[in-house]
Amino acid sequence: MTTASSYVFPHRHLLGIEGLSPSEITGLLDLSETYVEQNRQVDKKQSLLRGRTQINLFFESSTRTRTSFELAGKRLGADVINMSVAVSAIKKGETLIDTAMTLNAMHPDVLVVRHPDSGAVNLLAQKVGCAVINAGDGCHEHPTQALLDALTIRRRKGRIARLTVAICGDILHSRVARSNIHLLNAMGARVRLIAPPTLLPDSAERLGVEVFHDMRKGLEDCDIVMMLRLQTERMQGSFVPSVREYFHFYGLDADKLSAAKPDALVMHPGPMNRGVEIDSELADDIDRSLIREQVEMGVAVRMACLDILTQQFANTVGG
């Protein structure tokens, strides 16, 4: 059984999946497994991070991710502080560095940061004296989401290698898609992207994926179907003709899913737009949908990340 003391994670921060080796990813997933079991016990709390301070610094609103990190920190015994910063009050560059200097004066042990600008979390990590976990930066990465998705897949399918995974929808604006592409490729899965041309990044094929514009063709023989939220808040201009037309061509329902393998499973990082990206009946299908399991795995993965990074950081400082 993997424990933090037996697993060496050679990075001070977790800023993205890109650059992590398969063994580093596997180690994080194995450690997360131990926390899945702990979270199913009556007594869910440990004192592992007693005396440690975790600051959740969210420049972007988030209920699911922030709550998951808060719960993870508290179950490990950390002192957890939530700081929600209104985006309108934040300016790039100097203001972010000023924020880092202020936080440094508080001597936290780990910062969990979400920011609307790609690269902002990396900049902050360079300016603070503690471990930093990226909880999503712009359209760049969302590493803990990819890890919880991977853990969910591995627990249900027994492996990640050689599975065919379709990521469908708003790829262009999705940090979840980017982190998942990096992870799935590293772990030996076959990745397909299914989206209208307007919702795909330029030269998407360079990411080591297959690209489809037709939902049924893209879903043929898939093991996992990962739907993405239409991120209208990041869209400037018209990317889809209408929500109704989008669902007709790219929303997942039983008819489109029939093109995948009979035992194909459905995922969504949430929050879901029912009737836009996914049919409600399918989202709630206990035999096909992994959406509730993803939420459960999220707490376990974030506990593992907090565990390994705070222990690692303490050892670095101590040395």
Write up what this structure looks like.
The protein is 39% helix and 14% strand. It is α/β, with parallel strands linked by helices and 319 residues long. β1, α2 and β2 form a beta-alpha-beta unit. α1 packs across α5, α2 crosses α11 and α5 packs across α6. The relative contact order is 0.16. The mean pLDDT is 90.
Continuous helix count: 11
Helix content: 25-40%
- The pLDDT mean sits at 90
Kindly estimate the percentage of residues that lie in beta strands according to DSSP: 5-15%
Top keywords for this entry?
319 residues; alpha/beta; five-stranded parallel sheet; 11 helices; globular
SSE topology:
Elements: H1 22-39, E1 53-58, H2 64-75, E2 79-84, H3 94-105, E3 110-115, H4 120-127, E4 131-137, H5 143-157, E5 164-168, H6 175-186, E6 190-194, E7 210-212, H7 215-219, E8 224-227, H8 243-250, H9 254-257, E9 265-267, H10 280-283, H11 291-318
Parallel strand pairs: 1-2, 1-3, 3-4, 5-6, 5-8, 6-7, 8-9
Quick recap of the structure?
The protein has 319 residues and is α/β, with parallel strands linked by helices. The strands form two sheets. A five-stranded parallel β-sheet has the order 7-6-5-8-9. Strands 2-1-3-4 form a four-stranded parallel β-sheet, sandwiched between helices. Helices cover 39% and strands 14% of the residues.
